[in-house]
Amino acid sequence: MRSLFLLLLLVSFVSLTAQSRISGSEIIAMLDAGKDVRLENATVTGDLDFTKLADREEEQKEGWNSRVNYRCHVRNTLSFVNCTFEGKVLGYLSEGDGWNGKNNKPLYNVDFHDAVTFRDCKFTEDAHFKYSRFYDEVTFADSRFSEDALFKYTEFETPVDFSNTNFRGSANFKYTDFEEEVTFASADFSANADFKYTKFPEGVDFSKVVFGDDADFKYTDFKRGVTFAGTTFEDSADFKYAKFSGDSDFTGTDFGRHADFKYTRINGQKWKM
């Protein structure tokens, strides 16, 4: 009996990993059923919309501009390796403004409680994780975002890996909270990259990165050090009001068009080039 159970379990796992195409709604159904999702060499059709999860709670904000917020929860492991997402990947959804300009329509955010892996993946449409919270290991290494990558206000509580990631659309990390170290080593930002007001309390690696458009690091706090060694800024680089409290490495950095370090401070002192 035990052997039969193991055989059925193996068959189930193989059918999942060998499947070449799966819809986003099927993945949501698996999570709703309490199953881990591990896909490799697969194509995900339609939107992968985590705001559709059944596991959610309502959060009501008070005030004249109040709106209902829903916090959705992914409590199982997510692992996508060499996968293509044909639709949007949504960890955030805002249904828009009301008739009088108030944000009185629902807002959906998603928390990821277990490990999340998007390695060597292709996001062909927008990927939105605004206000999402990641509590376990996260990697987007070697992936490609063809459209907008929205990580504004996102919280990462463990180390994060964006190394060798290609951002073809805008990359928004404004106000993002990185609790541990993070790497963007050898990443390629073809469109604008926004790290305004972002805090890096445990250090960040931007070595050998290519910024093909505007790079905004205004008010960014590099508390435990940063490296831009071998990095290329092909357009403007704005470090106005940024704080460099730890070791900073700009060895071999190429500031192509314009770099603004006005009012920038390093270890409490005004920046000197």
From TrEMBL:
Answer whether the UniProt record assigns the keyword Signal to this protein: yes
Tell me the InterPro entries matching this sequence. Answer: 5peptide_repeat
Signal peptide residues on this chain, from the entry's feature table? 1-20
Keywords in UniProt for this one?
Answer: Signal
Q: Which Pfam families match?
A: Pentapeptide_3
Protein name as it appears in the record: Pentapeptide repeat-containing protein
Organism field: Neolewinella agarilytica
